[in-house]
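Quick question about two entries, pasted in order.
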Amino acid sequence: MTRRREAELAALFETASELAGMRDPDAVLRSIVRRARTLLGTDLSYLSMNDPAGTYMRVTDGSVSPLFQQVRLGLGEGLGGLVAQTARPYATADYFADARFNHTGPIDSAVRDEGLVGILGVPLKLDSKVIGVLYAADRTAREFPPEEVSLLSSLADHAAIAIDTASLFETIQANNAAMKRAEEAHDRLTDLVLRGGSAADVAAAVAELLGGPVEVLETAPTLAVRANGRAVLIDDVWVCAVLAGSELLGGITLSGRPDLSDADRRLFERSAVVTALLLLLRRTVAEAENKVRGELITDILDGRDPSGLLARGRRVGVELTEPHVVLVADGNLGAATHYASVHRGLAGSRDRDVVLALPSRSTAVAHEVARALGATVGASGPVVGPTAIAAAYEEARRCLRALRQLGREKDAATMADLGFVGVLLGERGDVSGYVRSVLGPVLDYDVERGTELVHTLEAYFRCGANLSRAKAELHLHVNTVTQRLDRVTSLLGDWQSPDRVLEVQLALRLLRLLG
């Protein structure tokens, strides 16, 4: 499933780039149909265009029936006629057994001659107008799941904009001077699309072409929206809604040019179309990338093959061989996904929590995430590699549980911050890990040199931190006991401060219980 989504993401990039650079309407239609067949893996694909009498077959890919290639559908007739009439996608696993459609003799004969059984059709819309229908079909029964309907609809949205742009360019060619200017504008805007430009880049290019400040808005005035993608003059400022079908994506304004010519006004309107294309493409790409990133973090936590996970991470710009901090939060998945995407990390859901893996060498990032998401965050790391990330997740999850039990809402911490409290309150405390975090240097010193620093500490605490009693129990000179305790200080730092001494005593007790 992950590889398929990655392939779909790459195909959508290629499709948008190819369509953006085409000026021949027939070439645009052929490209659309070919891409539809490739993306959905169907036996054939085809596209019909609307006219006042209905919808007629324009381009096919994979068709073998001349009768099918020439069929015409009236509005409301067959699956395609219903899509054209209602402006809604329709799919059928078995066309001839489906009573939802108005079956006519000529249409059924053409479909039967082609041997079609499973058919999916989606509308090509400009503003609220359906200009055609894009289909994918198999010669065997086939269910079309929602993600395939969504994929074909996304391609149809790109295609409708590209068809309109190509048709406009064909019309502009009638005027020589206008054609040269339009070609320059088209090349500039197409180059922006191919280079992955932003809406701000489009605004800058159009401002230079039209000689006035251009601004992209998050929304558009009601009057501009009612104009359905046409530019309107409001208080000496040209405004055009940025629309994808009936969806309002924002608006674009041009100042200082109240006397726009018809050609310049059309160029301004085209810039709104290109802006819509870029915004749609970026949203589609972001959604696909976020799905891939979410599945990747899930597979990391499930312990999948690390080498495969490293390669998948690189394909979405995440280098798992670098240090990552792992966070478990009770925040919103959408906000977490956006944060991870901006910071080149991963985000997904696990049980009822959100999990993030962010490239960082400091757990201080947990406090930034807590503020950004308005969430409670347990943190662990930094760690390197998928296996270590999975282990760090368990610690971060226990830390989050401890924070919740302490009532520290919208706060962030690591298990080191919480100390033994984290062990006590965590769902399944990592006792060995806690002991090592407190006594690790002393344990290692004893093993490497055959000393008895741990034993000395235990005797020291049993004797109420009294050196005289401790040296008697250990049968050592008091100077020897002092030297051993000084060695502990050199390994652990100020272990006799009120906070640290409690940690050390608890770790010694747990060590004894662990055997």
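Here is the second entry:
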Amino acid sequence: MTAPTHTPLFPEFPDVPDSADAVLEGLDPEQRAVATALRGPVCVLAGAGTGKTRAITHRIAYGVRAGILQPSSVLAVTFTARAAGEMRGRLRQLGAGGVQARTFHSAALRQLQYFWPRAIGGDMPRLAERKVQLVAEAGARCRIRLDRNELRDVTGEIEWCKVTQTVPEDYAAAAAKAGREVPRDPAEIAKIYTTYEQLKRDRGVIDFEDVLLLTVGVLQDRPDVADTIRSQYQHFVVDEYQDVSPLQQRLLDLWLGSRDSICVVGDASQTIYSFTGATPDYLLGFRTKHPDATVVKLVRDYRSTPQVVHLANGLLGQARGQAAQHRLELVSQRETGPEPSYTEYADEPAEAEGTARRIRQLIGSGVRAGEIAVLYRINAQSEVYEQALADAGVPYQLRGAERFFERPEVREAGLLLRGAARAGGSSDPGLDDAGVPEQVRAVLGSRGWSAEPPAGSGAVRDRWESLAALVRLSEDFTRVRPDATLGDFVAELDERAAAQHAPSVDGVTLASLHSAKGLEWDAVFLVGLTEGTMPITYAKTDEQVEEERRLLYVGVTRARFHLSLSWALSRSPGGRGGRRPSRFLDGLRPGSATRGAAGKPLAARGGVERGPAARKKRGPVYCRVCGRTLSDAGEIKLMRCEDCPSDLDEALYERLRDWRMAQAKTIGQPAYCVFTDKTLLAIAEVRPTQPSELAVIAGVGARKMDKYGADVLALCAGEELVADEAEK
């Protein structure tokens, strides 16, 4: 296994090109067609990894260098400050440094600040520093109490209303029509929205969305201002056009006026932000609005190997709906690479450990940790991967979310559990003799956890997922340590938090699929691909399910060379394996089949299936004392029933504990990262004399066998380890 090289497929100019023709050098035929299409409306349908930014920046630069476009007359609009900055840098490198490249909000704010004295008079209102504080105050005035997570959700609903130009009195009907999962009663949200707008007027402030709304209002009401802007900007380029909202499109129409000098770039198959008001309708309807438009399709994929591209094409081949009718069939321009792997695991911890193990192998083969990503559907999934990577000694960094143990709800839960442990249990006297999971549920129940998840998505769901992860952790912990107290569980949480707070610079990226948009890595692990997670359980309508498919497509196309897809049959060890792999993998993973959108069966795609299910399935585990079939994870680790007599060698057990403490200190990790208590107990009871006997004990595994096997067997044989062996 070798890491891919980073030789650029499109060599950058070491110096500014000396002519307009030189700007076109190195472009493929379709990119050149984009660069030379400088008249009239142009629509560029650009698939993932096809060099769209290169095409549109060279188009602008070619127009400027050929004297067709004046730099100051061009406005390039994109959606993030990072993308705008990258575009400005490329344009400077190509000799078109005078071109404006901005986000919609940045361009509108600049115009609003300039024209406010002339169009409105006086000083422009200041931007509200913290919108959420105003929403909280609006809720309080309406006598509606919102917690921190509900505040975020209600704020998001107000933002959606404004970008879709929905007034408060129309909110309930509009939300129902759009199929939105509302965080509160629609009438309450409409009331808060009305009060929020009144508060802003009273205090003379505006919010981010108002910048666009006010600019639209000025351009509509003041033809002289609109004419001035149109005389300034005569040519527009819009990147990521599939993410335009109705409000942004309205502003763009006003900028253009009756002209058609516009170039839009997008890919309907990467529309994944409809919950914010984004819609691909304007991209898909561009040719209807502009019948004479030049349409160029970019399908040469310079990012991913043929194997990754084949999977991406197969995934979209099953899509339905309007966006699917306009999908692009990508053609890889890279060298051949490994087949994507499909891995089925027995449970989520096994999936995380298996992923961490494969990442270690990749790093060992030469792939940088910073060129590897683990992508999941929801942020609450990160904890088990944070833990597995920490256990494996692999540095990592989270993108777009706090580390699990740094999330406010998790820190608050930790404080409450710590207080309950000091008080001797939960605040409910009836639970004094209850087990740790029952006490944890009782404590967290006062902070938003319930047996059933809340409906829909958003901050309330995110908070519940974090608390539910803590409840599951307590259940798993108790299986391994049935006699543990709440204080022991709190200590376990502290150890895990300490292990996950290790600083990292060049680390594996952990990110949600949404936050991975626009990024790429040499190796990508797509994890947790089960029904109910991908597609997410609250994706009910056909449109919502198709957006989930597009989200997975975005994840697949982030990979340059290595791609791994995995799922777990149950949540925890020993659980009932009733989960099913995501429907989106039907017809793609080996051994599966489905019917595509056109009604024709899709052949099973290539791939390598690894993991427990792909190899020999593990048979039942029997108690080595009484012969009963074992199902509890803790009993499986001990290889006996809890109540069967133990033949523990206590002296060996103490030696193993002392040795484990020394190892943990050496690697700077909690003791359980070496071996859990249950595994040490099993070793001290079995007293293995050869590697094969040690290897079959649950919790040892191949990696730990290689690392610690010799030491453990020596201790079992009664040998004394020399200091450097015990501390190596």
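Reply: The chain has a mean pLDDT of 82. The CA atoms of residues 425 and 433 lie 9 Å apart. Hope that helps.
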